[in-house]
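Example (one chain per record):
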Amino acid sequence: MSAKGAGDNLENLSLEKAQEIILSSIKPLEESEEVSLADALRRISFDELTASIDQPPFDRSPLDGFALNHKDTKDSSGERPAALKITQRLFAGDEPGPPLSRGEAALIMTGAAIPAGADCVIRQEETKASSDTVFINREMEEYENYCFKGEDTKKGQALIGKGIEFNFARIGILAGQGLEKVKVFCRPRVGLLVTGDELSPPGVPLAPGKIYNSNLAMLSARLTELGANVQIAPPEGDRPEDLGRSVDALLESRDIVVTTGGVSVGERDCMPKVVELIGGRLLFHGLAMKPGTPALCFEKNGKIAICLSGNPFAAITTFEVLARPAIEKIRGRADYMPLRLKAAAKNGFGKSGSTRRLIRAKITGNEVFIPEQGHSSGSLSSFSDCNCLVDIPAGSPPVLPGASIEVILL
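Predicted structure:
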């Protein structure tokens, strides 16, 4: 028999207890690599990054117009406009011009450095100008239309912490600092094994009694979205010895293994037998939750395998709440748990149940729409436009429109 923790109840676990067991069994990767900023999207920062320069690096104009001293426009109006001498023309990329004296103005373009002596910029459309004089017909305020040096970020300011995922905005911020490369956590190495005699690969005629292997494509795509380096084992049937060899090989080379199928109590549900055959230590088998009740997790030589139901929606649901946090932690992400929030049900969900349920839904703003049909653990079509899971506690009555519900964002 596979080893068990002394006195542990390994069946009918709460989701939170199962997550605790998994997350306490893994730690973030210690390896890092340097990548170009262009290749950093969705990678996890290995370092804390601070600003090396002010951004913007000089006082600059936010628009096309004239830079001047606001005092030179005192009491100006349409009847008595201030007339200022145009002494220079400044364009984005030019070196800063010489200081302005009182009574002078500089024609300035968006992004150009504001010269010393000027403390505001007036829009070009608000002025009348000749070749050497600009006429201002209203009073300007100090620092009106004025972008200060360091207004966005100041030198030494914290920009991105360790464990933060690079998105397009953060990449833009770092590009503004002149960074060309960043240090990131190495990609988590994930092994994926999809089991079942009933599975057929896409692209071949479907034989009687067979179904196409949607789990492999779906989970491989999701792992890729999560930045994993995925190794896909050849699909296996329901033979414990063959499965054991495949799982063992993945555990040797991968940081974590995910499997689907063979975890229930049927005659050919052989993953519990596989754990015994390869000398794994069972961490749990069975959740107090639907779908994905028979999920199983075991450990061998410091590596864990998370074994999910073969039903497609059950597989992806338990992947999101069990495997995803583990993979996010391995890849170094600081906020590795899925985000939960409260929202209002736009429509109802008529079923009550004694067991905790995770159901598919779509959240928009503060409203959650629950599909009216297609909630079986084998159905995927109603999940295509969904972006969250609704967490319905055990013993809850039917969800009524307008009810406050908790969702897990995907």
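Caption: The mean pLDDT is 93.
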